[in-house]
């Protein structure tokens, strides 16, 4: 069945079965491996993408449910040499161990910071509470999000002076 949408700011026209999940479309049909298959139930966060700028679990969204909408994956957030501040902060804080949760943590954190550039530690913890990390790098992940927030707020504060 034909489907048209935008993925990472590019128009995409594909023919996929009605039952195809957004995650499978992204990984299998478009070769975007940022979103990971974790639980398949929308509970672990490994498959997180943005749909029209809002963090969403792609494993439980039918691909045809995003027809005509904008989907952003980790690959569309930033790229080597031009990282998004959250991606750079995760690298600087060495916030990945096995890396399986990284996509979801980065996408969820970037969505939070887009809405709320200077969240409290409690707010960050709350926002990321639905993203599972099997390796226990939660302290580094929290540090990375706080670093990214500081980078995003700093230019704004500097401009006000």
Overview of this structure, please?
The chain is an alpha+beta fold. It folds into 2 domains: 2-77, Ubiquitin-like (UB roll); 85-160, DNA polymerase, domain 1, CATH 1.10.150.120. The protein contains 6 helices and 5 strands. The chain has helices spanning 22-29, 74-77, 85-92, 102-115, 121-128, 138-160; strands at residues 2-7, 10-15, 48-51, 54-57, 70-72. Strands 2-1-5-3-4 form a 5-stranded mixed beta sheet. Strand 1 and strand 2 (10-15) form a beta hairpin. Helix 4 (102-115) runs parallel beside helix 6. It is globular. The termini are far apart. The model is unreliable at 156-161 (pLDDT under 50).
Question: How would you sum up this structure in a few lines?
Answer:
The protein has 161 residues and is α+β, with helices and mostly antiparallel strands. Helix content is 40%, strand content 14%.
Question: Which value, in Å, is the CA radius of gyration?
Answer: 16 Å
CATH architecture heading of the largest domain: Roll
Structural class: alpha+beta
Strand order of the largest sheet: 2-1-5-3-4
Uncertain stretches of 5 or more adjacent residues: 156-161
H/E element string?
Answer: EEHEEEHHHHH
How much strand content do the residues show? 5-15%
CATH topology of the largest domain, which one?
Answer: Ubiquitin-like (UB roll)
**CATH class category name of the largest domain:** Alpha Beta
User: What is the helix content?
Assistant: 40-55%
CATH superfamily of the largest domain: Beta-grasp domain
Average residue pLDDT:
93
- End-to-end CA span: 55 Å
**What is the overall shape?**
globular
Q: Largest sheet, if any?
A: 5 strands, mixed
How many β-strand runs? 5
User: How many domains comprise the coordinates?
Assistant: 2
Q: Helix segment count?
A: 6
């Amino acid at each position: 069945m034909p489907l048209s949408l935008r993925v990472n700011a590019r128009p995409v026209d594909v023919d996929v079965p009605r039952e195809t999940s957004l995650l499978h479309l992204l990984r299998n049909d478009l070769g975007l491996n940022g979103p990971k298959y974790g639980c398949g139930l929308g509970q672990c966060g490994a498959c997180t993408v943005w749909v029209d700028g809002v963090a969403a679990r792609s494993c439980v969204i039918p691909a045809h449910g995003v027809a005509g909408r904008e989907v952003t994956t980790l690959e569309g957030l930033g790229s080597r040499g031009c990282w998004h501040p959250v991606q750079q902060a995760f690298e600087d804080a060495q916030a990945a161990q096995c890396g399986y949760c990284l996509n979801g943590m980065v996408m969820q954190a970037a969505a939070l910071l887009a809405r709320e550039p200077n969240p409290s530690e409690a707010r960050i913890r709350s926002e990321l509470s639905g993203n599972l990390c099997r390796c226990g790098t939660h302290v580094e992940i929290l540090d990375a999000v706080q670093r990214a927030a500081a980078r995003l707020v700093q230019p704004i504060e500097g401009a006000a002076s």
